[in-house]
Design a protein that fits this description.
This protein has 128 residues and is mainly α. The chain has four helices and no strands. The longest helix is centred in the N-terminal third of the chain and has 31 residues. The chain is elongated.
Length: 128
Amino acid sequence: MGGEPGWVTAVADALAALCLLLGGFLALSAGVGVLRFPNLLARVHAVTKPQVLGLILLLFAVALRVRSWPVVAMLALVVAFQLVTSPVAAHMVGRAAYRTGKVGPEDLDLDELPHGDDENESARGPSA
C-alpha cells in the first residue's frame, strides 16, 4: 500500500464508499422486504437475495480499503460461505413451511411436491 500512487488510493476509496452505500441499501431493502411482503415465500426471497449481494458488496468495500492479502483471503472465504449456505437455508425454511402448512396453495404457481408423507415417497423411489 505504501508504494502505490495517490490516485490509486483515491479511486479505491471512492469505489469502497460506493460499495458500502450500495451494500447498505441492499441490506436495508432486505429488511423492508421482510416487513412489507405478504407471504412467507416472498419474505424468504427478500431476505436471501439482497442480503447476500449486500454483504458481498460490503466485504468487497472492506477488501478495497484494507488491501491486505490475508484479510482479502478471509473475506473471500466469508463470501464463499454465504454463497453456499444462504440458498440452502432459504430452501430448508421454504420446505419446512410447506410441510407444516404455512404456505397456501395460492402462494404457489406450480406445486411439484408430493402430497402425503414426503419421507415415504422419497424412500420408495420412482413408481414403475
